[in-house]
Amino acid sequence: KNAVFVSTDAPKNEFEELKKMLEKEDVNAFRFIPTDEVHREYMDGGVAIIDQSICSHARYFLGSYESTFTFRIQEEREIHGFPTKKTFDMLCADGKFDCEKGSQWKIEYPKKKSD
């Protein structure tokens, strides 16, 4: 089966609905659910960073337009050298199927001086 990791602040019932729809397409959906201990230690901000780290290392990332969370993941993926074609696709707003992709800010590293 194919697998997808979903990072969302949507209510549990919405994720479960998505999960059931994806299972019909032979796709398993997963999300990070911290234990009470992890949540106490890292709080909401730390848990979001864990989600961000998981997303930034995915084979393919699909973000949300105008999302700071998405922007940070795209930035991290660029730093790690992931292909732009697997980093900048966006979920569209309700009812739209063709929307603008995220802004691509190419990181240009300085050329190294040769000895």
What is the helical fraction, as a range of percent?
Answer: 40-55%
* Low-confidence residue ranges: none
> How many individual β-strands?
4
Percentage of β-strand residues: 5-15%
Strand order of the largest sheet: 1-2
Biggest beta-sheet profile: 2 strands, parallel
Task: Decide which structural class fits the backbone.
Answer: alpha/beta
- From the alpha carbons, calculate the radius of gyration and give it in angstroms: 17 Å
Mean pLDDT: 89
Structural description of this entry:
The protein has 115 residues and is an alpha/beta fold. It has three helices and four strands; from the N terminus they run βαβαβαβ. It has helices spanning 12-23, 36-56, 68-80, and strands at 2-5, 27-30, 62-64, 89-91. The strands form two sheets. The chain has a two-stranded parallel sheet with strand order 1-2. A two-stranded parallel sheet has the order 3-4. α2 (36-56) packs across α3 (68-80). The protein is globular and about 55 Å long. The chain starts with a strand and ends in a 24-residue tail after the last strand. The relative contact order is 0.11. The mean pLDDT is 89.
Secondary-structure blueprint of this entry?
Blueprint: E1 2-5, H1 12-23, E2 27-30, H2 36-56, E3 62-64, H3 68-80, E4 89-91
Parallel strand pairs: 1-2, 3-4
Quick structural overview:
By secondary structure, this protein is α/β, with parallel strands linked by helices. The chain has helices at about 10-25, 35-55, 70-80, and strands at about 1-5, 25-30, 60-65, 90.
